[in-house]
Design a protein that fits this description.
By secondary structure, this protein is α/β, with parallel strands linked by helices. The chain is 23% helix and 31% strand. Helix 1 packs parallel to helix 2.
């Protein structure tokens, strides 16, 4: 069983400025000095969490091509969400970009009503569970964290749950608490990558990016400051724990319609 190296990039963002954000993240990615399998960027990493859909891009445009280039250069999967315009609709779309140029995506299911995201974007209707080095990974976006049914790990469908976010500091307690809950209830590694700094609407962000194991124990946690950090996840440890404490066998089985 192979370990999985995951790099979390917690950063401030330039408001509605894809050019500046891509240049900044390129510099941060270049700082990664240890081999990594997966690089995780925040929600709407190229623009910040804005409802200005004028800065949305079509697929296969600047940010998409940048992700493709970074994945190829680093030989790692690059993951983050981008504002995408497609077929007359806008999506908060998480892109899973592989080093070989193949990709998958997930459109945010739960749109943040309090920020009027549901007025500007179209919700997704299916989860993405993908595979890397024998690991099954389920990546979700920000507000999805509040809805445990959407993340429920039925029949060990995944080994790692990932949330990319623009989650304000004023609600950091729910963020921290729910990340721990998702890890414990789903018996999976859980990773949250959030931004720091202040956005164009004067909302402050404290980051609180974290990597948590299947028992709800922190492997990594960072508040407030920018940081590039790589954590190594052990598949053998996860398998051993699930054998020793098979709570998943008593879980309720269901299908989301």
């Amino acid at each position: 069983m192979q370990d999985l190296s995951v790099t979390l990039i917690q950063s401030a963002l330039y408001w509605e400025n894809p050019t500046a954000n891509l240049a900044m993240f390129e510099e941060k990615i270049a700082q990664i000095t240890t081999p990594t399998d997966l690089i995780v960027l925040p929600e709407m990493f190229s623009t910040g969490f804005t409802m200005n859909t004028q800065v949305a891009e079509p697929m296969n445009f600047t940010t998409f091509k940048w992700m493709k280039q970074q994945a190829k250069q680093t030989k790692a999967v690059v993951l983050g969400s981008v504002m995408i315009h497609e077929n007359g609709k806008n999506f908060n779309r998480l892109i899973w970009m592989q080093p070989d140029g193949n990709y998958q995506y997930y459109d945010k299911r739960h749109l943040f009503r309090m920020g009027e995201e549901h007025l500007y974007f179209t919700e997704g209707n299916s989860r993405l569970i993908t595979e890397l080095k024998g690991w099954k990974i389920c990546p979700l976006i920000c507000y999805d964290l509040r809805f445990p049914v959407w993340a429920r790990n039925v029949n060990q469908a995944y080994d790692v749950l990932i949330y990319v976010a623009n989650w304000p500091a004023a609600r950091s307690h729910p963020w921290n608490t729910l990340l721990l809950a998702r890890a414990i209830e789903n018996q999976s590694y859980t990773i949250g990558v959030n931004r720091v700094g202040t956005d164009g609407k004067d909302y402050a962000f404290s980051g609180d990016s974290a990597a948590i194991n299947y028992k709800g124990e922190y492997l990594y946690y960072q508040k407030d400051q920018e940081e590039v950090h790589t954590v190594v996840l052990s598949k053998q440890d996860l398998v051993n724990f699930r054998i020793q404490f098979p709570a998943y066998l008593d879980a309720d089985s269901f299908v989301i319609q």
